[in-house]
Amino acid sequence: MENIIKDIDIISPDEAQACDFKTTEEENTGKTKKLYIESYGCQMNFSDSEIVASIMKENGFDTTADFQQADVIFLNTCSIREKAEQTVRKRLSQFNAIKKQKPELTIGVLGCMAERLKDKLLEEEKIVDVVVGPDAYRDLPNLVASAEEGTKGVNTFLSREETYADISPVRLNSNGVSGFISIMRGCDNMCSFCVVPFTRGRERSRDPHSIVQEARELFEKGYREVTLLGQNVDSYKWSPEENNKARLNRKEEEVTTVINFAHLLEMVAQIDPLLRIRFSTSHPKDITDQVLYTIKKYDNICKYIHLPVQSGNSRVLELMNRTYDREWYLDRVRAIREILGEECGISSDMIAGFCTETEEEHRDTLSLMEIVKYDFSYMFYYSERPGTLAAKKYADDIPLEIKKRRLAEIIEKQAQLSLERNKLDLGKVYEILIEGTSKRSEDQLKGKNSANKVVIIPNDGTLKKGDYVHVRIKDCSAATLFGEPIA
Ligand code: SAH
Ligand code: SF4
Ligand code: F3S
Predict the structure, then answer these.
(1) Each residue of 174-216: pLDDT tens digit?
(2) Which CATH number do you get for residue 123?
(3) What is this structure's pTM?
(4) Residue from 43, 80, 190, 196 to probe ligand 2 pocket by mutation (most atoms less than 8 Å from CB)
(5) Mutual orientation of helices 326-340 and 289-297 as an angle, nearest 10°?
(6) Which parts of the chain have pLDDT scores under 70?
(7) Which domain holds residue 476?
(8) CA 254 to chain centroid
(9) How far is CA 442 from CA 21, 57, 308, 437, 445, in A?
């Protein structure tokens, strides 16, 4: 066991969200053309790629894992930090060579970078044929057909209604156990550092019936965990009036009241006790006690909350326009501990070196981390994004070396806290859901407990993915628990 522990380290900042990318898997249903998609950014973007694959499948495309075989290449992009955009530009230049050999290849840029840069992308990146924003994916087949005839195209129309509720996603890169379901799109908050409200448009919630139906279908296919996705799941709100009853052809009696996030959680939790429910992201200003009590009421709603704080200092939080302060945040953490107990997992996102942040204010972030005792965090240094409120109002005045040093301190603090939290689990028994064999060896299985901790157990050949098993924790590193099944 010891040699495993040495190899595992804590996630580093830019490996976390925006620089991750996933490619498609091979799907062969006898279609004539091949689509290759690479996805960058957050889970919502990965989930959108599954919608894109579904739309393209209806229009004659199977997915391929080999871009050399592809007739169409899509990059589903992220704009959250400058580095995320640079990664995509590098990737486009790599595809340049292929396009030279194969001029009939269509290259599309999708997602947040498409939305942010619009037709400028066609000017800047000559090999791009189509540019399509997150709300215009239904138009992809038309745009690709035009591109094949030699006409480049852009559609970055942002909608107030589009939720792709009727589209059944083609699951890409799935382990067959956990699936992601988008429950809303867009964001109506205006955090001053953030590009998302500009790239994803207004917030809108998806019909709860289509969410429950999608979760049920996943369960019937053998999935045992769904993660409900939105930029701010706590502001989920659906009512027949607001969400255009006529368009969805819904009978009046089916939904009589407004459905909020707590109700939605309950509806999904009732599908089957064997289906675990996770959700992301919770916003500190909106997470209610009603949501916490709903999580408590159902064993199959996981006791884990991703509650990004961004900064531990109230002045900085105000500049960030997060609409809560340090005390409010700590009060929400207190409510989580009171209602859901010490074992509930809590994780966060942190930004180091936001405009005008002083050393003392940076230390407030470290001290808040120490009070909350996060299990895990995604940590970044501030990257100014064109067009955001912060870019317009404040100078990006913290030198890069200082941002990096503060970030390193935050990462070090998180590593200590993760280890401290994991040590508390030694000797405890948890139910884990097995997701497959561990990356390192076929002799080990990997699963997660309710608090979202990765647990590694020996593979004795009797357990398989999708099984639940009770495990006693014997050892840990900062990132992983190691256990053994108990009778
Ligand atoms: N809706 C989620 C966050 C989505 S973006 C929320 O409100 O918590 C994911 C994370 O990226 C953010 O939480 C933030 O920590 C980070 N981020 C966003 N914009 C950034 C920027 N300009 N520079 C650095 N990090 C940023
Ligand atoms: Fe960005 Fe704030 Fe919306 Fe999150 S809540 S997506 S950080 S604007
Ligand atoms: Fe990136 Fe867009 Fe998600 S900017 S983090 S892909 S919403």
Answers:
(1) 899 999 999 999 999 999 999 999 999 999 999 999 999 999 9
(2) 3.40.50.12160
(3) 0.93
(4) 196
(5) 20
(6) 1-26, 242-256
(7) 429-485
(8) 31
(9) 24, 34, 35, 6, 7
